[in-house]
Amino acid sequence: MKTKNIKRLIYALPWLALGVSSCSHEDLPTYDDVNRVYFKYAGYPTGNLNSDTFRYGVDNMTVNMGYDIPVKPDSIISIPVLLMGHTAPVAREMKVDLIPEESSAVLGEDLEIMPSYIGADTIAGYVNLKIKSSPKSYQGTLLARIRLVPNENFYTDYVIVQADGASKNAVVFNVYFTSTSEAPEFWVDPNTTLQMKQLFGPYGDKKMWAIQQACGIDRNYFNKAPYATALEAFNARFPTTQASAGTIMQINRFLQRWKQEHNGEPLREDNGDEVKMGVNWI
Q: Comparing C-alpha atoms, which of 179, 188, 216, 223 is closest to residue 68?
């Protein structure tokens, strides 16, 4: 009798262990329980760790619609987001809000928040915004301070601890936008304005458009880097006369073709001035 009872106990032990194991695992948190999303570049360090230029991540961007010719009524921008957790076989929607009390842009009037997703089988996604050329955007720069908010798919409580021990919020992002047009920094900075005017001539919106068409470079190429002076950035991009000459020649050839294709009429700024480079290299 005792032998039979012992045998029954031995047979029951594996099942009992499995039952205990199953119950304990159900109580443990998994990645699926804590899927988090955060703005991608908030987690990317920039600059030298041991210098004053070090920053842990980028949490803003600037968009200028005033340089489009003609100015568009709106533009779609996409801000990269990353997932911390498990991927899924379907796209999952994120929830995004504007922080109205910290923004000068007004939802509906100046921008719209478009559907935004983490893609299927990937940790990458985008927050999509439609920014508008509204009357206020022609008066100055507007700020849209947006944040990721929790929903049924994702938590949004991710905080980055920086090298100095300070915390950085990774779920808030600033978008600055305007429909005004201003000269890029190389043209206005006192350390680079002379070199720019010698090479490219005075600034003009149509000239900037011609440079983009001829060379495929946008206006940001003529702005300083985030953690460098205008002169340092200028010298890095135009280190020699030969390097500058190649760019100028491309633009001058584009202007020549424009004139030929428009019955001898040159490209002109809105005030009637002909678009010319500072030097006539062909």
A: 179
- Yes or no: say if 120 and 88 are a contact pair by the CB < 8 Å rule: yes
pTM of the model: 0.56
Contact (CB, 8 A) for 67 and 21:
no
Number of Cα atoms under 13 Å in the Cβ half of residue 123:
12
Furthest C-alpha separation in the chain? 114
Q: What is the C-alpha separation between 190 and 192, in angstroms, rounded?
A: 6
Q: What is the pLDDT of residues 212-259, one digit of tens each?
A: 889 888 777 888 776 678 888 898 888 887 778 888 999 999 999 999
Sequence length of the chain is: 282
Domains annotated on the chain, with CATH: 36-178 (2.60.40.1740), 185-261 (no CATH)
Q: Name, of 14-28, 111-125, 201-215, 268-282, the range with top average pLDDT.
A: 111-125
Torsion angle, alpha carbons of 230, 215, 267, 258, to 10? 170
DSSP symbol at 61? E
Residue spans of beta strands (DSSP E) within the chain:
36-39, 45-46, 55-56, 60-64, 74-84, 92-93, 95-98, 111-113, 117-118, 124-132, 142-149, 159-161, 167-169, 172-178
Range in 31-35, 49-53, 65-69, 133-137 with the lowest mean pLDDT: 49-53
* Residue tagged 């990317």 (tokens): 44
How many alpha carbons fall within 13 Å on the CB side of residue 194? 3
Give the amino acid at 5. Answer: N
Confidence of residue 278 (pLDDT cuts 50, 70, 90): confident
